[in-house]
Amino acid sequence: MSSSPLKRPLLLAYAAGSIGSGLFSTVPGLLLLFYLTDTLGVAASLAGLAILIPRIWDIVTDPLVGAWSDRTRSRWGRRRPFLLAGALLLPPGFIALFSAPVGDPSLSFAWVLVAFVWATGAFTLFQIPYASMPAEMTADYHERTRVVAHRMAFLPIGILAGGALAPMLIKASGGGPAGYRVMAVTLAIIAAVAMSVAFFGTRSAPQLPAPSESAGLREQIRVALSHRPYRRLLLGFAVQNIGIGAVLAAVPYYCHYTLRGGEAAVTVLFVSLVGPAIVAMPLWMAVSRRFGKRVGYILATVLFAGCALSLLSAAPGRLALVAAQVGVLGVGFAGLQVFPFAMLPDLVDDDAAVTNQRREGIFTGLWFVGEKGGLTLGAWLVSQVLATTGFVERRAGELVTQPEAALVGVLVATAVVPAACALLSLPLLFHHVESARNRAT
């Protein structure tokens, strides 16, 4: 493992994989609940289960794949075979996810549930080893921030394609089930290409050999979670992702029922989110070099919470104002992406210094349990808020009038839940800063 700067072509090829990651992380989180309730006619409470159950499957498979990649020996190294497997298996699962039969809500529910289990499993094969790679690509503290910043600079492209292009494709294809199918096929092709570039373009990436001996999965999980700074950071990161998952799932409802702007408003808000997020990456890198990663992480969290709460002021006809608010939110969102992932390899090094074992995969696998679990809980919370406040589901083409309580529920899910989650994570981050101040600076 080298401390010298990595070559730009390698960084760009590695970062390209995050386009596929951004697509799959965004589209189901943004559109799947809305697709179930407002196209397939599935009740909100049942639709939440179609999202929750596959993510519980993720909680099992993420650490399994992480530990598996730690032990893998191949001519392609420990991580890269998984990148290829994910690139081949995810696209058909993603297409199936938005190709559910229409008519019987129970059949639609079952189809989406099975397809989502397939897609999440395929995504895990790619994402866990992929995110483990920076810890063995370089040993330099700031170079790791550079690697992650490149990845996070490409991530918004995937997020933008998922959050802005996806609604445009659905609308341009006539909406309804056919529009969702066209969207899924188009974005699946983009994801497959991006993930393949990450596989082929990282042939020269520094890698570490698999350990000659490795503890069992249960012991590896125990060791990882006994690392106190890692455990605190993981918990704070997971709580934040509950809020991010909530705002993603709530945005289509927010655009349709609060702003009354439909798919066009969804596209505008995602462009407003992602554009500033890309521009903000050099800003957060500068903050990291000047004040440390943890201080930057706290600043980004506070900014995200404040901007999320400001979304309570939304009303029909205020799309331009809301877009500006979301733009500032995007700056905070960028920090919430770059800092925790840049801090993770440092914690892997802390563990290796004590145990003499490189456990990038298991640390990353548990990390994504926190991320995916948080995003899923956020989406599930939105479904429960909608069900509790009397939201009326519909099939494509039907017109319904939502009760006032459901409209209030949409606002709460979009603004209050994410802000509360961000603020709840702060004590863990402040405590972590104090316990690791010397390493951070």
Please supply descriptive tags for the structure shown above:
single chain; 441 residues; mainly alpha; 0% strand; globular
Please outline what is shown here.
By secondary structure, the chain is mainly α.
Architecture overview:
Helix 1 packs antiparallel against helix 2 (44-71), helix 1 packs across helix 9 and helix 9 packs parallel to helix 13 (360-388). The chain contains 15 helices and no strands. The protein is mostly helical and 441 residues long. Residues 433-441 have low confidence and may be disordered. Helix content is 81%, strand content 0%.
Q: Can you count the beta strands?
A: 0
Number of helices: 15
Give me the Rg, rounded.
21 Å
Amino- and carboxy-terminal Cα gap: 22 Å
Strand fraction equals under 5%
Helix content: over 70%
Helix/strand-derived class?
mainly alpha
Whole-number average pLDDT?
84
Unreliable runs, pLDDT <50, ≥5 residues? 433-441
Detail the topology: elements first, then pairings:
Blueprint: H1 8-38, H2 44-71, H3 80-97, H4 105-132, H5 134-137, H6 141-172, H7 176-201, H8 217-225, H9 228-258, H10 262-291, H11 293-310, H12 319-355, H13 360-388, H14 404-435, H15 437-440
Helix pairs in contact: 1-2, 1-4, 1-6, 1-7, 1-9, 2-4, 2-13, 3-4, 3-7, 4-13, 6-7, 6-10, 6-12, 9-10, 9-12, 9-13, 9-14, 10-11, 10-12, 11-12, 11-14, 13-14
Subcellular location: Cell membrane
Family: Belongs to the sodium:galactoside symporter (TC 2.A.2) family.
Transmembrane segments: 12-36, 81-102, 108-131, 152-170, 182-201, 233-254, 266-285, 297-315, 321-344, 365-386, 406-430
